[in-house]
Amino acid sequence: MRAFRKSTHLSRQLLATSGLRYSSTAAQTTKSLTSVLIANRGEIALRVGRTAAEYGIRTTTLYTDPDARSQHAVSSPYAINLGDPSAYLDGDRIIQIAKEQGCQGIHPGYGFIDLNPVEREPSLRKKMYRSRADLHRPTMAGNRVYGKQEELTRDSESKDIMTKAGVPCIPGYHGTEQDPEYLKTEAAKIGYPVLLKAVKGGGGKGMRIVNTEHEFFDQLASAKSEARNSFGDEVMLVEKYITTPRHIEVQVFADKHGNCVALGERDCSIQRRHQKILEESPAPHLKEDIRQDIWEKARQAALAVGYEGAGTVEFIFDNDTGEFFFMEMNTRLQVEHPVTEMVTGEDLVRWQLIVAEGGRLPLTQEQIEQRIAERGHAIEARIYAENPDMNFIPDSGLLLHLRTPTPTPTVRIDSGFIAGDEVSSHYDPMISKLIVQGPTRDAAIQKLKSALEEYEVAGPITNIEFIKRMCVSSDFVAGDVETGYIQKHHAELFTPQPPAPEVYAQAALGLGLQEISSAHGNPFSGPPVTAIGFGSGTNFQQRDFNLVGTPADGKGEPTTTLVTLRQTAPAQFDITVSGKTYENVTSTFSPTTNTLTSFFPHTRLNTTFICYSDRLTLFQSGRQYRLQLAMPEWTKKALGVKEMKNSVLAPMPCKVLRVEVHEGEEVKMGQALVVIESMKMETVIRSPVDGVVKRVVHGKGDLCKAGTELVEFEEKEEL
């Protein structure tokens, strides 16, 4: 039984009378859309819903069990629970729900149905097309020839059609023969280096660069394995690999009346793991004649197949020669479409609605070019929950604190989360998209940097600090970009930036004021911190804190800094950080904003201070700092923490809140094993040694007596 949810407030908003979505050049030829199902989640579901609401279109959204409390689940008047986390990929069921809800169309957003290897087959497209269900509904001819959407033979066909249409294609093999020896022979004909790419791939998976024939078979096996596990299909194509490539794509739109326009290009060259991080428009240092040519080739690509709707024609641009080659066409709006919206001033979801209703495109090519000339430069940064220092591995968890830049006409945030939401491990870890616009590229970069300094996320690790470093990377500022930029500039982008002494001082002040506030019955928000060794707030005189800055990449020894905090008067302290003393520092904390304001002898500091268990997150002077509060030895003894060779025990009667490890996992000394709760206080139990987890004895929700075994492990022999 599907759960059914209704939001009366948004229902009234959606049913309110709105302005026309048609310009004078967009005469309506079919019945207007009044109801749409949004077959996606997160920020794109919210973004599509906003445009629909503006034009009085009723929306139905979908959510799964992990997304039951998500923003998109409560954003529209009707929301249907799909249940299983993977149900967003069930195209047949989504079409059935759309019919049951009386929806005239389905907006797929991006990803899921578009990228699902099962639902790429023509059957789903035909079902959606015949029922007028797919709002971006590209024509069947267009969908037939773009090989990424269907079978391998169609990919070869698409290249042939593009070549006949005058669109340059990168040299490569796109045939059906998949014998490894045959593929190696084709690679030799093309010339190394070559790119191996899964035909049904996406998101950078199933791709390998082969530099010499000696590594061909190993890389092929690796690419096939990844493709098979990710897409259920290991068919590969082989293409010439451009050694200094840029990823440049063109946003095209076509209607049923034969009109087709290019809404400018986007440079998406800053990538990790073949996935985009920064996108911008116009592309820097692109000669005007090449820009006009690449726009025209994109239009030719769409016209060659009778395309209709929103599409993105992707090209590989060779920095060395200035040549560009057709790569593929994505038959949908892309994640980065707001960049184009910023430089044209147009709502592309509105354009999709117009085309779906049979209208003409709102602007001509000449009008679009005039808009782009007037509106300067736009850049989008994808804000991900991920750890750049550990090869950008995804992170997840509760958003303990979230503060975004102030939106303006030139600063836009497309987000799917608010503070208190959880970034799920089931889905893509993108938290939001930050898009800025400026009169020039330099102005846009400066605006992006300033906006990022206002962006605060506590909980999961994010890539915000990394993007800040990108904004000051000299070659990026100069516009000298390529898809291998991050690897090429690794030393510059990943240089450690240790906290200043004032950061440690503010951390100690925050902890001290927290204790004093708690003693007077006004605790800070969030669970009280343990393992500090503080006594009663009425006796507060001097406290020592050992604050640890753990290397994000897990390499090297954690750095521990001793901070001594001595109260000399109400709200006044002397603070010593590694031997350096700041005298007569006055400090106050605002719980409503989590802001710690301190007056040091030489400056005033405003710091956002977030404390959760033994982890501290501080935002100060435009940077984020993550610290850990070390447990003093005498406090360990007071808590009764026992270190046995093969076990970690509960130090007190407690309830297990979370288990942070799994059986068979290798752990390091100090790594979190279990989070327990006792007397409404949380304590993180950490591993006393390096070892391998043999058994997790107690799970989430279990009640344990003091001395109960929590985790059993075997010490590594090399210790």
From TrEMBL:
The entry's cellular-component GO terms read:
mitochondrial matrix
Give this protein's Gene Ontology molecular function annotations: ATP binding; metal ion binding; methylcrotonoyl-CoA carboxylase activity
Q: Which organism is it from?
A: Setomelanomma holmii
Q: Which residues form the Lipoyl-binding domain?
A: 641-714
Cite a single Pfam family from the UniProt record. Answer: Biotin_carb_N
Nucleotide-binding: present as a keyword of the record?
yes
Where this protein primarily resides, as one coarse class? mitochondrion
Q: Which InterPro entries match?
A: ATP-grasp (IPR011761), BC-like_N (IPR005481), Biotin_carboxylase_complex (IPR050856), Biotin_carboxylation_dom (IPR011764), Biotin_COase_C (IPR005482), Biotin_lipoyl (IPR000089), CPAse_ATP-bd (IPR005479), PreATP-grasp_dom_sf (IPR016185)
* Locations listed in the record: Mitochondrion matrix
**Name of this protein:** Uncharacterized protein
Q: Where is the ATP-grasp domain?
A: 159-357
Keyword list (alphabetical) reads:
ATP-binding, Biotin, Ligase, Mitochondrion, Nucleotide-binding, Transit peptide
Domain Biotin carboxylation residues, every copy: 32-491
Question: What cofactor is needed?
Answer: biotin
